[in-house]
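Hi,

I'm pasting everything inline rather than attaching a file, because the server keeps stripping attachments. The sequence lines come first, and each chain or strand is labelled.
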Amino acid sequence: DSGVTQTPKHLITATGQRVTLRCSPRSGDLSVYWYQQSLDQGLQFLIQYYNGEERAKGNILERFSAQQFPDLHSELNLSSLELGDSALYFCASSRGGGQSYNEQFFGPGTRLTVL
Amino acid sequence: ILNVEQSPQSLHVQEGDSTNFTCSFPSSNFYALHWYRWETAKSPEALFVMTLNGDEKKKGRISATLNTKEGYSYLYIKGSQPEDSATYLCAFPANRDDKIIFGKGTRLHILP
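And the predicted assembly:
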């Protein structure tokens, strides 16, 4: 158990809908990262927050947004969902803000299915 | 576009044998190289963060080496056990604080 929690575990929704995925980092970790893993794709970095501020941005679609709250939990909002958004979404956390030197601890993931 | 390549894609190894696989990354602007193990139905777990050329890190039967000048890292597993069956990912930060790029992994199967 990495200490990172994600809810829900599974989510099934329809195209055009909006969902929110939630992540709580390990105690003491200030950074939260979001990743998407689709079929046949590696882990794709979406976005990182450090202590409430956006730190780095990856291949995140405009329909997706995220935020980190004062208690350091984070939410990833996915809107106008398309079939291709079906994927496993991971959250990870690390102590510091720099991606280079900080190992990341991954949550169990949220499996999103868009029908 | 920065690329992180891992080879082979898949590997079958007899229990008790040793094995190794490769992660290749751009050798310019190196900051760090991460290795993760990802077991089926679980989430990725950090193995090593390597930062210095010539670095060698070890955790039990697993070790890794790093060559930043030629842009590769090897992961070695000595005396493979069934619990080593997993996908091994390497990850390369594109910049010091910017997005991190994961390779597609080497899927290791240990045969009893």
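Chain A has a mean pLDDT of 93.

If the labels don't parse on your end, tell me and I'll reformat.
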